[in-house]
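Hi R.,

Here's the chain you asked about this morning:
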Amino acid sequence: MKSLNRSDPNATVPYTPIDCGFHDRLEDYAVRRVPVDVVLEKVAVSGLITDVFARDGADWMVLQTATGTETIRLDRIRSVNGIPLPPDPTCRIR
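And the predicted structure, written out as tokens:
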């Protein structure tokens, strides 16, 4: 499994929690096996979300694409299925 963030020079940037509603949407897509088009900072990928999880203080998703499996840090997402990641999270866990 490869991570789109391993080649990202900003991979050491601290994680910024994403909007809870957007996180819930990603989990819903995973459960219902909805095909997704994901736009990141410099690349777009398509596939099925197979997992959404937390590790090392960040939230991640696993995307099964036509060419393999990608692990994507959620704060690197710009949009999913044309829905932009809200710029200011509406929830924070303290």
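Helices lie at 20-32.

Let me know if you need anything else.
M.
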